[in-house]
Amino acid sequence: YVAKGADRFLTPDYIEHTIRPHAMGRFEDLLIATAQGPAMLFYLDNWESVAPGASPPFPLSARRRGRQGVRTAPQGINENYARELLELHTLGVDGGYDQHDVIEVARIFTGWSIRRPQQGGDFEFHDWAHDTGDKQVLGVEFERGHGMDEGIRLLKLLANHPATMHHVGRQLCQRFVNDDPPDGCVDDAVAAWQRTHGDIREVLRAIFHGPDFWAAANVRAKVKTPLEFVVSAARAVAADPDTTPRLAQVVARLGEPLYLHVAPDGYPEREDAWVNSGALLDRMNAAVALAAGRLPGAVVALDSVAPDTVDVQHLIAAIDDGILGGAMSQNTKRVISEQLSDVRDPVLARALAIGLAIGGPEFQKQ
After folding, report:
1. CB 254 within 8 A of CB 280
2. What CA–CA distances, in Å, run from 120 to 10, 20, 90, 186?
3. Of 167, 194, 259, 264, which has the most beta carbons under 10 Å away?
4. Distances (CA, A) of 21 to 14, 29, 33, 196, 208
5. Number of domains in the chain
6. Rounded to two decimals, what is the model's pTM?
7. CA distance 288 to 125
8. Domain span holding position 115
9. pLDDT digits (tens, 9 = 90+) for 129-183
């Protein structure tokens, strides 16, 4: 969430050096990397989580002083990261943990913080802030005296927990297969996870090669998010975007401002979050504007899609083949044909037809 203080500056580094290098590796490594990512530590306030009664061995920096320069005490344990780690990143809300586990996890991650900006602003473990007592999470004992290693051990435990395999596996199936993922897809993901010790690439391979991915009920079963719609539309017309944020602003107008979802659960995957009459009208307007070259931020190349011809049926067939792979319905073809009936300029007709196809129902599907 880039509107929260320093995360405006920390998020690009988080994407490039935390997410991308680990996205196709082992889930355990990804989890550890995110836990130590300054953007995550700041967003969920763990950077200032300290054991009760802990006191820094050095003077507090100006950012930790009051407005009048009066020294302020550390704020104590913060449970935000601990709660989201269990509920969203690993076990899931039904993963068998309780509030006691949340508190114990928060104790384990006391001291996981961030260096001062002038020192690089990367991850730093503050031994003085760490809770040195014994802890217990999910019935597993964490003896005192192991400092940062307690957190590493816990992350490895959670990454390989059966509830995590099922929860994350189901999320992946929901992301790529169906809003209501089949049990078989989830089972395939879990089996691959167990077989490869959480190799994300192999888990995805199992999903993509599984029977549920190719089942008729799941083909084009998901609706594109605004980001997916804008990116795929730009690709469909061979758009050459400039370096301004104008296309990102289109995504925002369609309901998905990038990195501005306040809650830690991210933008929804389900169709009902994105599909309503107003949203579909906005997509149609954006599609027509893009194809007509009226959308700032991108120069389109319609010649790569279809010829500028007065033969409406030939034009529609070329668009269907070039953009939709032959998936255009007879109803969509009829609507486009009717809209072109009074258009005599072949260049304008092509732009309108492409815009209507991109704004049409078939293009909304993944």
Report:
1. no
2. 11, 20, 29, 41
3. 167
4. 10, 10, 10, 18, 21
5. 3
6. 0.91
7. 52
8. 7-159
9. 999 999 999 999 999 999 999 999 999 999 999 999 999 999 999 999 999 999 9
